[in-house]
Sequence to fold (167 residues):
Amino acid sequence: MWQLRAKYCPLCGAGLVLAMVEDRERQRCSGCAFVLYPNPACASAGVVLDDRRRVLLVRRRIQPYAGQWALPAGYQEVDEDPRATALREIYEETGIRAEVESLFDMIYVPDDPRRPANVAVFLCRVVGGVLNSGSDATDAAWFGLDALPQDLGFRNAELILDRLPRG
Ligand SMILES: [Zn+2]
Fold:
């Protein structure tokens, strides 16, 4: 299981010690009341469909799944609504401007080696922009739902894309 380990309290700088807190062994500050809770990260992903019901995918530049295709997605900033995260990542990775139509699902991804994450997956539609790959992707392209690439990272097909109506 993924573990977050720290040496010092981020609030007062005293050392952290292992202790039983709320039925789990956790790191607790030896100098103040701080307890380190290693929560999942928050992330958003966008399922952008065009008027032919093709889905927008990016070929990932970075690990995990570097070189494989995936939905545009990324981590939520602390001052950002999850919808805004999805739209920002879509634009940064593909050049496409989109808007959210609905929340498709919230998916728990326990096997991301960086950190487990809760991913809010939004159905989106195109409102503008020009397709091009951005900073975190080496390529971006549209795929028919019946012609998805085989090398799809993050179990995107099983967890999300295979569940979309084929229309
Ligand atoms: Zn402390």
